[in-house]
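Researcher: I'd like a structural prediction for the single chain below. Treat it as a standalone chain; there are no partners to consider.
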Amino acid sequence: MIRAWLELNTFGIFATLAVLYYGAALLLVYLGFRSPLRRSIQKTNGIVAPFFSSVAILFGLLTGFLASDVGERGRHAVRATQAEASEIRNVYALSVASASDMTDIRTALKVYVNSVLTDEWPAMINNAPSPRTEAAYDDVLREVSDPGIARSSGTPVQVALISAAIRAGTARSERLSIATDQTNDLKWVSVLILGLLTQVGLALVHLDRPRAMLTALVVFGSAAIVALGLIGLQEHPYEGAFKVATTPLEHLLTLPDLGPASALPQAPKPEN
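Model: Treating it as a single chain, here is the predicted structure.
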């Protein structure tokens, strides 16, 4: 449920929060002053105002921790994408600088980069695997591991090629891991519930004045909607309003021999 909510567009995320917290505000005012339970609820009148801060502090702390986790994951996502593009560029540079012909390596890189952009990136957003990209990366590893490279260009060149290709694969694995991470779902549930409990605390210290209660609940609800909505927009770093750009990978297509996607050979599909 949390993931489905966070996958909504910007309007959907804020609208859901507005319905939750403004709806809770109206419900609490109704229960305290209009419902058949109002007499029982009014008997709890007299709770001192500092009681509200105990719940609000918990809400604020957990919201801060959640925002920190979301921000850190976004930074990791940017670094992973940039590292992947950088290591692919290193493989390309080594293949060009080498004395031997490494056209096959650059062809494999072209297939891999375009597969990431056109196939794996959309699949990653939908939590689906990309066999085509996996096969393209395996093809890159196979090309840089060709024993002929060591004979024609030297062992140090081949070691550098393999190391760069492996580091690119490591960055790719980190990118995929970040995209499928759902460890924050429980934190989101806790934050949303604590927000509602904070509204209950506000209502309990305003049982003598309905307008004051409604005003306090609306002000807090508005603050919660803005804060949680902005955090929610950044929960999935590879999609949404603040998504990680594919620019570092797209720039690789401007390199000679990598070329446009229209001229790509197709990557082999893995056998079932």
